[in-house]
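In the previous chapter we treated chains in isolation. Here, by contrast, the input contains two separate entities that must be folded as one system, with a combined length of 828 residues.
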Amino acid sequence: MDRRTYLQLAGVGGAASLAGCLGELTGGGDFPDGTITCIVPFDEGGGSDVIVRQMADPLSENLDTNIEVTNVPGAGAMRGIGQLTSEDADGYTIGKFNPLTTSIQAMIEPPDFEMTDLEGVATIGYNAVVVVADPEEEVEGMDDLIGRYEDEEFETIGGLGVHYLVHASFFRELYDMPWDRYIQYSGAGPINEAIASGEVPAAVTSDAGAASAVESGDADVVAVLTSQGSEVFPDAETVVDQGYEEIDFVGQVTRSVWAPHETPDDRIEVLSEGLQETIESDEMQAWADESGNPLEYNGPDHANETLEEIWSDVPELVDVDDLRDEAGD
Amino acid sequence: MSALNALIDGIGIALSWPTLLWLVLGVTLGIIIGAIPGLGPNLGMAVVLPLTLPLGGTNGIILLVGIYSGSMYGGSVAAILLNVPGTAAAAATTFDGYPLSRQGKAMLALSASAFSSATAGFMTIVALILISPILITVVLLFGSPEYFLIAILGLSMITIVAQGSIVKGLVAGAFGLLISTIGVAQQSPEVRYAFGYVELYDGLDFVAAILGIFAVAEMLKLATERGSIAKQSIDASGTPTEGVRAALGRRVLLVKSAFIGMFIGSIPGAGAAVSNFVAYSEAIRSSKNPDGFGSGDLDGVIAAESSNNGTVGGSLIPALSFGIPGSGATAVLLGGLLMHGLNPGPELFTTELSFTYAVFVSLFIGNIIILVVGLSLITRMEYLTRVDTQVLIPIVFVLAVSGAYILRTNWIDVLTVALFGIIGYYMFAHNYSIVAFILGMVLGDIAEENFLRSLEIADGSFLIFVGSWPSRMLVALTLLVLAGPFLKSALERSDESAG
């Protein structure tokens, strides 16, 4: 190669590299032009995984790129979220998890990253948190349930892991429900069995998780914790309907999509629009109806607000150290 | 709809086209997935999960249970031929299956495995169909205290399997229990022995440990030898029919192991990873020649293989009745049910009974496929035992390491394989019971979680562990297992003095 040709090629290469760099700095006009990885910080087959895998194909079509689902389970989702926070903030890695249970996990066992640094991409639906009771106990609403704890007829209350201990603690702090012992279960299935067998008289769980037990008459819904009500149990009364203080920020599990800190706004916008188109498509809505996973799109601001509210309100109302001690009892 | 009508409907669905095609595909895929170390049913089913969507609920779920059932059998292939359990469910199969391969009797072991797997599948599915009307009542008899006691019963089996030195057996079991304490504690947010690594928060993966203990340790041992796995001085012997005849001659063992598998499968968290060891331990306990185990006793292969396929039916009990996953594979299956809008719960045994029976009948037919494929095609893989170890060792190492990594995409699992490869090598060399170690490692979590929860429910009272008749029965059974060796020798002494 002679010197002239070399310089020409170097010039072209340099210009191309510079254009590439500029593209990176400004967010790029052709985003996305490569595979987008979606981290699911839970096991295959779980609620989050099922939804993401369901969305992957239509989202690929809408964004005109390939969506790869990666499960990084462990440490109560902290391993997967930790991985997401350490990825390049270029929009090519996103994660799907609800901010409520993961934040409670992070409050009790602080990881080496800040959950609040995450950038919201969208919220894609929610499940209400509900209180269920053993039908044989014939509990008539929250007043009756609280009365049974006051009379010491009931002593224990069940819930999912340490996460729903926050709700039980709110019951004690805000609703004067003097339960004595919180019993942890590892999933919605074991909670249903515990309620059906009478191992615990009442429990905090998700509406989708309790659906089968309620349908078969093995559990009764006492109250829905979000004032928005439950799509799974549209006839069930909320705590607000029953005259209790609103606790919406923990009353629902908001399914959300996140990106690493400082991901450019224009890329978040592209991703968010792709998600909106996917979530609102007839195909996904039909699946949502059929599978009992209500899907509803809201933009990045809604996701960020939900996360901020959890981190500001939960520690204000419940002492995290007490929570940690209670969980360890 | 009566149960009989639902069953007839279920049979109709299972035999209809293209449902049957998806079943055949699922079982065949399952056998292949099960045979590849580290892949296992969890990952195989998870990958297929979104692809089942266009198939609709029934066909999609039947494809998934086909993979689950096929992989239970498939796991035995590499276990017998290479000492590499394809799945955790086939770990106990290595104890006698692999020595049989070393003796040139791989064909015998493979055919006996196929026959016992399929037969156990047939029996337990029929039992499942028969008990389905009262299934929910039975499930509700078992709560946290009973699950704890079942774990303790499993741990008490250590006294049986610790052949030779009981102290070494207890040390191995205690080591397994200690390993199970790594990570976040079961009922409190306390992190134990994680040294600040998030990767250790969920503890060491049991499957990675098994890959190390069996596959890597055996390859280290083989590296000191020349030639192939089947010793060249021995001629290959046996035909598939010989294995079938041998299994038929051990009917009691087969039936007993199948139902041990079914019972353990129905305990949340235990699954086939535990059942094959418990069935193997029971086979040793009831054998007239317990010393022959571990050196190529076909009883060991039959016990392990009939139990793991029996587990499939058992694990569907908590999964379908209350949505409780008994194992990783049933967790993915539950995901499949939810994805197809089928809520696991008591309704599956009332209004949705036809669907549930269709799944059961498909499992039954799936076992016919296992039998045909197992006897006609898999037995030919005996050839692998004649491949030079210089070729096999690197292949198995790569499979074990990559298999461990894809378990949870966690590098700790790769280190676990390496670490337990070395530990396993020395445990074998110094006769520390591997079964005792594995029982400790798997049952530790279940015992801890249910023990603490039971005490919390009872406000610290230990009486909760004798509060129901199933728990009293389990306590009696555990005491019997623990006192068994003493009672046996006392009886023998009284016989001698009487004689």
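The mean pLDDT of chain B is 84. The first strand of chain B starts at residue 183 and ends at 184. Compare these points with the single-chain example from earlier in the chapter.
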